[in-house]
Amino acid sequence: MNHHIALQFEDGVTRFIDASATETVADAAYRQGMNIPLDCRDGACGTCKCFAESGQYTLGEYIDDAMTDDEARQGYVLTCQMRAQSDCVVRVPASSNVCRTQQARYEAAITQVRQVSPSTISLSIQSDALNKLAFLPGQYVNLQVPGSTQTRAYSFSSLVRDGTVSFLVRNVPGGLMSSYLTGQAKPGDTLTLAGPLGSFYLRDIQRPLLLLAGGTGLAPFTAMLEKIAQQGSAHPLHLVYGVTHDADLVEMDTLQALAERIPNFSFSACVASADSHYPNKGYVTQHIAPAHLNDGNVDIYLCGPPPMVEAVGQFIRDKNLKPANFYYEKFSASA
Questions:
Q1: Domain regions of the chain by residue span
Q2: Domain covering 2-92: architecture
C-alpha cells in the first residue's frame, strides 16, 4: 500500500510523492524526481534530516552524530531511514530549487466569476488536470493575470471537486486581477496557476482550534473546514471572522452549512465600522472569549492583513498567554 507524503520545502513549495511502507522516503522522493539533500544513505551523516509534522513512520538504524534520540522524539527524521506507515507531512530544510523541483503549473477555464460583495469576488475554475492538484488546505497558488506576466497569490477557498476549485479575491480598485475579473473575464477564459505554496496549512488536530479570519483571509479557512468536515475532529473549533463594513460579510451561508456538518464547530462574525448595524461590532480581538483560548492549550490559525496580525499578536502578549501553536499568514493588496 502506498502512502501520500507532502514535502514542504523552506521556500513554501509543497510537493506530494507516493511511498510504499518498505521504501525510504528519500528513495521515494528520488524516484519521483525530488532530490532531498542526501549523502551517506546509512543514517550516519545527518544530511537528509527533516522534520515530520504529522503521520506514522518507522526509523531504521542511525548514529547520534546524525540524529540524537531526543531529536527523534521531537519528530525529526532521517529520510534515508524513514519509512512511512501512513500519509505524512515532512518539512524539508532546503529550497525547492536546491532539490531540483519546480512549482507545478496548470491551465484551467473560468467557470464562474461572482462579485459577492463590493470588496470580494468569488472565482471558480475547472480543468480535469486539477484533479491531480494536491495541496494542504490553507495553501495558495499564484494566478497569472491574463494579458500580463504578473501573478497574484490567492488561497484556495475550497477543496478540488470534479476538477473545480474556488478562490476569494479582494476587489482592489485599480488592481490588476480585480480589473480583469470585473471588466473582462468570462466563462471559458483560461487562467494559468502555479503552486501549491505556503507554510500556512491545517496540521493534525491535537487540541482545540481558534481560527481568526480578516476579510478575504476567510478563504483558507473554508478549505480547512471542508477537510475537517470530511475527516471529523474530536476537539472543539471556533472561528472569528472580522470585516470592515456590513456589506463585506460573505460566505455566511457556507459557514452555517459547515457548522451543521461539523458538530463541534462554532463561528461568529464582527464588523469594525462604527456605522455597522451588525449585532457584533468591533475587531476580532474583542470577540475572543477566554474559553476559546483554553488556558493556552489551543492552536491558533490567523489569516488577515498585517495590522490584524499585529493586533492579535499584541492581544496574546497582553494576555501573557503562550498558545501551543500560533500559525499565521499576512496578505496585502496589490494595486
A1: 2-92, 104-197, 209-330
A2: Roll (3.10)
pLDDT digits (tens, 9 = 90+) for 289-303: 999 999 999 999 999
Q: In this predicted model, what pLDDT tens digit does every residue of 185-213 receive, in sequence order?
A: 999 999 999 888 887 889 889 999 999 99
Whole-angstrom distance, CA of residue 297 vs CA of residue 327: 14
| 108 CB neighbour count, 10 Å cutoff | 22
Task: Give domain 104-197's CATH architecture.
Answer: Beta Barrel (2.40)
Cα–Cα distances (Å) from 119 to 122, 164, 244, 246, in that order, read: 10, 23, 10, 11
Between CA 76 and CA 311 the distance in angstroms is 33
Strand-strand pairing, 299-304 and 325-330? parallel
pTM above 0.90, yes or no: no
Distance of CA 200 to the CA centre of its chain: 4
Written out in words, the top-level CATH class of the domain with range 209-330 is alpha beta
Give how far Cα 144 sits from Cα of 147, 149, 166, 254, 283, Å: 9, 7, 15, 27, 33
Q: What span, in angstroms and rounded, lies between the C-alpha atoms of 293 and 307?
A: 21
197: its cell numbers: 505554496
**Using CA atoms, how far apart are residues 6 and 203, in angstroms rounded to an integer?**
12
The helix-helix angle for 219-231 and 252-261 (nearest 10°) equals 20
Three-state secondary-structure class, residue 287:
helix
